[in-house]
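Quick one: structure tokens for this chain, please?
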Amino acid sequence: MTKIFSTDRALRFGDCDISGTAYFPAYVNILNGVNEEFWTHIGFPWHDIIWNERWGTPTVHLSCDFSKPSMFGETLTFDLGVIRLGRSSVTLRHQISCEGQQRWTSTQVLAASDLDKHSSIPWPDAVRDTLQGWVTPQEELGF
């Protein structure tokens, strides 16, 4: 079964350059917010795992392909799929669109990390079980 997390984000003035075109560093910041929302959606809000459990999910790899510019005032739809789960990493595939038109895609690898030792850790069992339920091969995601 294909599982996709989807959420919308409006492009604000501060997300764009002087021409009104979305600025790629802002895209990465927005993407981080989408990831945070996903983790809350699956039951592991960052404010809880970071402060109480002392582990986090830093990005260890990120690639982006931009196909069409987005403009100030547009609302982008972010679709997130989990395409691979490792011992201490998860690979996410993102498709970002506006009114059904693809604007950019991204593949991102997050790693479970002990925040005090600054080293990778295996996923906690409950997290692994939850993430496993989201894994969908990229070919089945359609993006």
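Residues 43 and 130 are 9 Å apart (CA to CA).
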